[in-house]
C-alpha cells in the first residue's frame, strides 16, 4: 500500500510539472506575440520640413502601416514587370507587322505594274486577233463583237469609270480580261479548225524543198538560161538543186502516186509523181530510185538520191512542177506552207 501511494504521488508530481511547463510555454508565446504586435503598433511620426520657412507637416502612423505600404508598393512594382515584358513583345509585333505591311504594299505596287503590262499585252492580242480573223474571213460580230456588247471587250479595260467602293481596280480589270479571253476562245478554235482542215491541202500541194533536210542550193533557176553544154539561150523548165555530191536523199514534195519510173537520155533516171488537183512533179538525174510505179508516197518520203545520170555537168536534182499541160516555176510553191 505504501508503494502504491508513492507511485500515485509521483504521477501527480509529473502531471503537475507537465501542466506547469505547458502553461509557461503558452504564456511565453502570448508574451512574444504581444511584444511582436506591440512592435507593429509602435507609433512613428514623419515630419516634412520644407527648405523655406513654411509650416512643418507632421504625419503620425505606426510600423504596421509603413510595412503594409511598402508591401503594396513592392507588389505594384512587381506587377509592372510582366506588363513591361508584354508591352515590349507587343512593340516588336507591331514593328514586324509594319514591316510586313511595307512589303505587302511593295508587292501590291509590283502587281499593279504587272497588271498594266498584262493589259497592254492583251490589247495587242486583241488587235492581232482582229486582223487575223479579218484575213481568214471570220465574222467578228459573231465572236469578239458579241463580247463587246456584253461589256467583256478589252475596250472596257481601258476606260476611266470609277470602280465600286472597296474593290481594287486591278481586280475588276482582271475579271474583265478573263471574260474577254473566254469569249476569244471560240474564234481561236475556229482558226485551229480551219488550219486543221487545210492541213491535207498543204500536204497535197508540192510546197517543200525536194532535198531532204533542206540542204543544198539552187544551181539553176526556172526560165531563160544559158545551156551549160551548148552555151545557147534556152528555157529551163525546172529548178536544179545541187549539194556538190551524189547520194543525198530526194524527197516527195507532196502526197501522191508514182506514175512513172524510168530512164531518159536527157533526164537520166527520173520519177514522175501524180498529186491531187492535176499536179505532177518530176525528179530527174537521180543516182538511185527507191520507189516503184504505182506506189503511194507521202510528203517528205525519200524516193531516191541525187545523181549525175543523163545529160548533166555534175551531181544535181532537176525538179519540175506541171499543172495539167502547163509547166510552172517551182519556186512559187516551195515553202508555201
Largest sheet: 10 strands, antiparallel
Amount of helix: 40-55%
Average pLDDT works out at: 80
For the record, give the distance between the C-alpha atoms at the N and C termini, rounded to a whole number.
148 Å
> β content, as a range?
15-25%
Q: What is the molecular shape?
A: rod-shaped
Total strands: 14
Main attributes?
alpha+beta; rod-shaped; single chain; 337 residues; ten-stranded antiparallel beta sheet; 14 strands; 4 helices
Please characterize this protein's 3D structure.
- By secondary structure, this protein is an alpha+beta fold.
- About 45% of the residues lie in helices and about 20% in strands.
- Helix 2 packs parallel to helix 4.
- It is rod-shaped, with a radius of gyration of 56 Å.
Brief description of this entry?
The chain has 337 residues and is an alpha+beta fold.
SSE layout:
Elements: H1 2-40, E1 43-48, E2 57-62, H2 63-136, H3 144-149, H4 169-204, E3 217-220, E4 223-226, E5 233-236, E6 239-242, E7 249-251, E8 256-264, E9 268-274, E10 279-289, E11 296-297, E12 302-306, E13 317-323, E14 326-328
Antiparallel strand pairs: 1-2, 3-6, 4-5, 6-13, 7-12, 8-9, 8-11, 9-10, 10-12, 10-13, 13-14
Helix pairs in contact: 2-4
Amino acid at each position: 500500500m505504501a508503494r502504491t501511494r508513492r507511485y500515485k504521488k509521483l504521477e501527480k508530481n509529473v502531471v503537475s510539472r507537465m501542466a506547469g511547463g505547458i502553461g509557461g510555454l503558452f504564456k511565453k508565446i502570448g508574451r512574444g506575440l504581444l511584444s511582436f504586435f506591440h512592435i507593429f503598433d509602435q507609433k512613428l511620426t514623419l515630419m516634412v520640413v520644407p527648405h523655406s520657412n513654411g509650416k512643418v507637416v507632421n504625419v503620425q502612423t505606426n510600423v504596421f502601416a509603413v510595412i503594409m505600404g511598402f508591401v503594396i508598393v513592392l507588389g505594384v512594382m512587381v506587377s509592372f514587370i510582366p506588363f513591361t515584358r508584354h508591352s515590349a513583345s507587343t512593340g516588336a509585333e507591331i514593328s514586324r507587322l509594319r514591316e510586313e505591311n511595307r512589303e505587302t504594299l511593295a508587292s501590291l505596287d509590283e502587281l499593279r505594274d504587272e497588271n498594266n503590262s498584262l493589259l497592254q499585252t492583251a490589247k495587242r492580242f486583241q488587235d492581232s486577233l482582229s486582223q487575223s480573223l479579218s484575213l481568214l474571213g471570220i465574222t467578228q460580230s459573231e465572236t469578239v463583237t458579241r463580247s463587246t456588247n456584253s461589256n467583256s471587250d478589252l475596250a472596257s479595260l481601258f476606260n476611266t469609270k470609277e470602280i465600286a467602293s472597296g474593290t481594287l481596280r486591278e481586280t475588276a480589270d482582271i475579271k474583265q480580261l478573263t471574260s474577254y479571253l473566254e469569249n476569244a476562245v471560240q474564234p481561236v478554235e475556229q482558226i485551229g479548225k480551219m488550219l486543221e482542215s487545210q492541213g491535207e491541202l498543204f500536204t497535197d500541194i508540192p510546197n517543200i524543198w525536194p532535198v531532204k533536210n533542206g540542204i543544198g542550193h539552187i544551181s539553176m533557176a526556172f526560165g531563160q538560161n544559158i545551156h551549160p553544154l551548148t552555151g545557147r539561150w534556152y528555157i529551163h523548165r525546172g529548178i536544179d538543186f545541187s549539194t556538190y555530191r551524189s547520194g543525198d536523199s530526194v524527197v516527195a514534195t507532196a502526197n501522191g502516186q508514182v506514175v512513172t519510173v524510168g530512164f531518159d537520155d536527157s533526164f537520166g533516171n527520173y520519177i514522175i509523181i501524180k498529186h491531187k488537183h492535176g499536179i505532177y512533179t518530176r525528179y530527174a538525174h537521180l543516182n538511185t530510185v527507191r520507189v516503184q510505179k504505182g506506189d503511194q508516197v507521202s510528203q517528205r518520203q525519200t524516193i531516191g538520191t541525187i545523181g549525175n545520170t543523163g545529160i548533166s555537168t555534175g551531181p544535181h536534182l532537176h525538179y519540175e512542177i506541171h499543172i495539167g499541160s502547163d509547166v510552172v516555176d517551182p519556186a512559187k510553191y516551195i515553202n508555201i506552207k
